[in-house]
Amino acid sequence: MAEQQDQKGCATREMVDEVLAAYPDKAQKMRAKHITVKEEGCASCSIRSNSKTVPGLMTARGCAYAGAKGVVFGPVKDMVHISHGPVGCGYYSWGNRRNLAEGTLGVDNFVPFQFTSDFSEGDIVYGGDKKLEQLCREVKELFPTVKGISVMSECPVGLIGDDIESVSKRMSKELGIPIVPVRCEGFRGISQSLGHHIANDAVRDHLLAKKERPDPGPYDVSLIGDYNIGGDAWASIKILEEMGLKVRNTWTGDSTIEMLQTAHQVKLNLIHCYRSMNYICKHMEEEYGIPWLEFNFFGPTKIKESIRKIAAFFDETIQEKAEAVIAKYDPLMQATIEKYRPRLEGKKVMLYVGGLRPRHVIGAYEDLGMEVVGTGYEFAHKDDYDRTFPMMGDNTVIYDDVTAYEFEEFVNRMRPDLIGSGIKEKYVFEKMGYPFRQMHSWDYSGPYHAYDGFPIFARDMDIALSSPTWGLAKAPWQKDAKEVRK
Amino acid sequence: MSENTCACTQPKEEVAEWLNSVEYKEKNFSRKALAINPSKACQPLGALLCALGIDGCLPFVHGSQGCAAYFRNTLNRHLREPVPTVSDSMTEDSAVFGGQANLIEGLKNAYQIYKPQMIAVFTSCMAEVIGDDLNAFITNARNAGSVPQDFPIAYAQTPSFVGSHITGWDNMFKALLQSLADPRHGRWTNGRLYVVPGFDAYPGNLREYKRLVSSMGIPMTMLPDASEAMDSPHTGEYQIYPGGTPMSELADALNASGFIFMQRYSTVGSFKFVKNVQKINTEVVTMPIGIGNTDKFLMALHEMTGKPIPAELEKERGRAVDSATDAHQYIHGKRFAMFGDPDLLLGLTGFLLEMGGIPAHIVCTNGSEQFRKDIQAVLDASPFGKDCGVHIGRDLWHLRSLLMTEPVDMLIGDSHGKFDAKDANIPLVRIGFPIMDRVNLHRSPIVGYQGAINLVTMIANTFMDQTDRTCPDRLFELMR
């Protein structure tokens, strides 16, 4: 028992091999490349990523449609996003990413809607192009203030060979609004990741630089890769504006089509979720010479670092204001830490999320005295892992596209105090008695970004860890009578 | 706003107001191609829920993995439970070469890692469009040694562009019987009544059916029984297969002394198969929501089995009637709009009418013409049903126009109705699937006499809460 306690939270190569031994040979070989234990000096720091999921193993991954519609385009609020194909994809991605937006429903905010062409068998046989034409007209007639339409293609659309590009072009001319075809059929690529890229390319080809702002300024920046989950973008904008910067565009949380069209005019692109939007940042750098900067607004340490990094791009006025912002919020952050750190100190966390969180939230946990002992991504690429390895301590386990089986086994062996992952994992681990937070949706709380977010983050982790409900799992008659009645 | 005015030049407020107008309603109802907030999911989700009801069964999506993630998410959100499901992760190369290689490898991995007692394979639209032949693929997978030759696999075609989640439930249920039930042994029966719930995401309902049938002393099997998978106990240990109908009882299904289907429209094909092809004594009842529908259900059980209705159930009925009369004044004459699956709506309509409630708008995205006739007959049988509009194939944006132009007092439906309800400034009582913004509702039955009590409680108390929250101080009083 004592030995097990010492071992708690400590990963070894043997542990990984033991877990993988249950697989058939081929699956074992494939999965072994996706899991590693960080050893001293980073000797084994390589990991395979962004390759196909092994068939038949329970994955948390989604598809290209989920990346394009569910992540990138969905939150653009004054556009109608048509899920083109059968009803399911639109239905399942309807309203569940918590992309908050200001506006009036049906007038300048369409985020809480689900628009679909609801394919029937006839559409599969005869094709959906005619229907798409009519559908665009109906959108414009029913929602005359709509500023644009995106056509998000589902699997059958690609398979039956519909020409959504030419329909979009024709209808865009007829209706006088941008109509953007997005070829994000779910079978393309190996995860959501390709969908992000496809959506970035669609923005580049159909929207970016199609309009000019009349009033560009020296402190104009874009906030990129913040989808305003539970108000995250609003919390981040607050800091940037207090620094004296002007946030002209948010991509794509609470954003408008005009923000996508005019983003080529800013002075700096600030990117939070690197994975989903690095493509367009790189494009803007090459094409318009706009530099881009990755930043991290989780937890006071990283926020402070990021504020200074951002301010360094600008003049002294901004740098002074940046220091003032840090000074203003430091006491509040200190109070949060003083309140929660004694309760959370030394607790071990295992993470498995997508996008930026598997590395970005590490600093926030560390601010609270917690340690991340395992992490991994659903759909990361090599560059994500290159950024992650330096942040991890020795003997942490890193897993790419972890299967449900592997994750459960690692948890069984490493016994973390808290797990942060998605809804598909949540109820499994809670049934096992592990405190858990959904780190895609903040478990319907939030924001977690920026100064507004950290006290909420700290409170939520504490709620999860110290809930008395965990102690109720075992019935008293399953325990020793003396223990129960004392 | 006239036909000739361009709304894009109008101020925001004017456009927002126009969305609530009769003129807009007409425009809205004349659309042909566009679906806005349709209240239906696609076939494989229903197939998944059906497969979860067999003990030891691993649901297996043949198609792209994103679909499996979406089905699991949606069920997770409603049930707040784990939903184990694998996929064979088909990608571009499968689109070109077919998904056989993925299925063979996928079955092998799933069998070895998740140690199921059976696997239920169903298709996503990708596999359907490219025309994968499940029958041949599964035979080839067995021959390739992915699973033992005699390992039970049920398979169903569930194209997402046909029907909805209730069609998928039906197809998977029929597939379970066709793939895994032994042939009928002539006139010999196993003496058990098989109770088939249909697409029902309330574990509380399933438990209530079992309690009611058992209390009549009828030997029964619930097939499939997802009540454990949808509501497994928290013990500190995770079980991937927490229970369900045992494989042996699925295998013995066609020797049942009878089948009773608790829903009509989510079991259309299965009902025909059991009754007409298998020639088994089969009944289908209206989902027993409300007292009258529960009476009919118990009478059907009595007629099928000859067992009397026990005194305890009569007492229970009396308590439900008591709750209905106690609360009648809060529901009588109130106008309701409803949306959801056809079976749910048929049952709920009966309940509201017996309470003196007035169904004003019924919107059913996945309803059939038969459903329209059936629900019209229920409405026609009551003076409270005479002015109700039944809208099949319509969606929640149509519903919004109805609420704005012909207002009601309450909306009944799943969580997706909350935007319409907010715009119309009326309460939403959450009944149906999915309910992702309230806890535990699925754990309490809405069927049977106890379900009737629960519905009366929810609906009447919601009206009273609303009065307390909105009334002026001079009308704020202790008793309601």
TrEMBL record, chain A:
It is an enzyme of class 1 (oxidoreductase). Gene3D superfamilies: Nitrogenase molybdenum iron protein domain. Keywords: ATP-binding, Iron, Iron-sulfur, Metal-binding, Molybdenum, Nitrogen fixation, Nucleotide-binding, Oxidoreductase. InterPro entries: Nase/OxRdtase_comp1, Nase_comp1_asu, Nase_comp1_CS, Nase_Mo-Fe_asu. Its cofactor is [7Fe-Mo-9S-C-homocitryl] cluster; [8Fe-7S] cluster. SUPFAM superfamilies: Helical backbone' metal receptor. CDD domains: Nitrogenase_MoFe_alpha. The keyword Oxidoreductase applies. It holds the Pfam family Oxidored_nitro. Belongs to the NifD/NifK/NifE/NifN family. Tetramer of two alpha and two beta chains. Forms complex with the iron protein (nitrogenase component 2). This molybdenum-iron protein is part of the nitrogenase complex that catalyzes the key enzymatic reactions in nitrogen fixation. This is Nitrogenase protein alpha chain. It comes from Heliomicrobium gestii.
From TrEMBL, chain B:
Binds 1 [8Fe-7S] cluster per heterodimer. Residues 42-463 form the Nitrogenase/oxidoreductase component domain. Pfam families: Oxidored_nitro. It is an enzyme of class 1 (oxidoreductase). Its cofactor is [8Fe-7S] cluster. It catalyses: N2 + 8 reduced [2Fe-2S]-[ferredoxin] + 16 ATP + 16 H2O = H2 + 8 oxidized [2Fe-2S]-[ferredoxin] + 2 NH4(+) + 16 ADP + 16 phosphate + 6 H(+). CDD domains: Nitrogenase_MoFe_beta (cd01974). The keyword Metal-binding applies. Keywords: ATP-binding, Iron, Iron-sulfur, Metal-binding, Nitrogen fixation, Nucleotide-binding, Oxidoreductase. Its EC number is 1.18.6.1. GO terms for cellular component: molybdenum-iron nitrogenase complex. One of its GO terms (molecular function) is ATP binding. PANTHER family: LIGHT-INDEPENDENT PROTOCHLOROPHYLLIDE REDUCTASE SUBUNIT B. Tetramer of two alpha and two beta chains. Forms complex with the iron protein (nitrogenase component 2). This molybdenum-iron protein is part of the nitrogenase complex that catalyzes the key enzymatic reactions in nitrogen fixation. Belongs to the NifD/NifK/NifE/NifN family. This is Nitrogenase molybdenum-iron protein beta chain. The lineage of its organism: Bacteria, Bacillati, Bacillota, Clostridia, Eubacteriales. The gene is nifK.
